[in-house]
Amino acid sequence: MDPEENESESTYGATTVSYGHMPEVEASSLGSTFDIPELHFRVPRDKYHLVYLALLLAGVGFLLPYNSFITDVDYLHARYPGTSIVFDMSLTYILVAFGAVLVNNSLIETFGTHTRITLGYGLAFVSLVFIAIFDIWLEVFDKDTSYVMNLLAVSVVAFGCTVQQSSFYGYTSMLPPRYTQAAMTGESAAGLLVSINRILTKALVQDKRANTVIFFCLSIFFVAACFISHQLVKRSKFVRHHLAACVSARSPDGVDGAFGEVRLEILDSEPKEALTESPGTASDDGQEEVEGSRQKSLRVRLKQTRSIRRGLLVRWQVAKQIWTYMLAIGSAYFITLCLFPGIESEVTNCTLGDWMPIVLMAIFNLFDFIGKITAAAPVEWEGGWLALASSIRVLLVPLMMMCAAPRDSPILQGPGWSMFISLLLGLTNGYFGSVPMILAPREVEDEQKEITGNIMMLSYSLGLTAGSGLAYGLKAILGHELTYDPCAAANTTFYNSTIFH
What we know:
disordered N terminus; single chain; 3 strands
């Protein structure tokens, strides 16, 4: 069939797909206005795995900006000595991110998916450019102002990237499960890329300010590349087909469908003439018009209230189906944020010096990446067992603490211990942070998959927030930073010990 003859029809291979009408707001989320498949069709293929690779880059794009702020930990410690800058950045990001997830669950009814994703990329790009130029390169701010500006930049990145991240998981929930795994693998790839970026820039350029500027410039380039790849892939037949299939599953009332969205009716303001008497019009007629307007307004408000209640009910019903997966992902990130990046940045070693936290973060990011790749293995977890296995990781918290406390002579001496524990933390975070997100959408109907992704993101954010808050308590257990040089031979022999002793 010639697509020029009928724009509402397209062909996948040898099979023609006919589309019916789709509301414009959904069409905008799909990239352009097009309609819903109603007849038989053959599912388009992801040729050359380009959609998979694009979603891998998407995962890179929404965590790379934040990782860029915390991975230059050597620069942060030199610029703000004696402060809790890494902890503050982590908590700031998590708190704003939690609020952003709540906002995104509202924006889902107002703005299209791709609009929210583009917003995230834009805010991240502007924040990275601002800090790289004005704070690091030109140093236009004093120390205290710079501290605040960095936290503000992290806040902007947190809001934009979390709206983007939550939108992507709602987006990928409507695609086959491996594409959710692609986005989550991209998250870990972001950390790994940033760690490699920092190691190379620090090793090749000795000046700390210069290598940090180059480090940020490379991060900005990666964000731009991720944005371009998204703009290209959202127009693919594969993506458009799967999103349209979920949209077509909506119910007649429009509430259970559209992924449980709550759509408030738009109120058209009454013309002034309807509320104002014109010459020659009886006052009774005017009164009737006013009363009619009030009744209409009341009916619309009642309709809005019922829509909100139905939307909340849909979310509650979905949560009851996936609560074990919510618990699994929440506990996974709670335990991780207790230790990373805060406590890991407090582990010291004289041989490695300011390389120590960079190495630990690189190990975590590498094995987090491996863990997320492993999550693609076809292992069917029952929700309860998955939540239990994820929670057992809490044993890593006291082990890592023993690598840092007491500060002058840690219980687990030698850098090998902290490296091994960081390895386990990253590997298990990658696996148990991905599997619940992959499996949860299988528990619900197609029309509820996007809202499932957003609810899982809410659980993810709750875990991050609680873990980041507890990290301050763990830092308090470590006590204040030492006022003397722990690397001096007269003070301790630990810092020059062998790898495990």
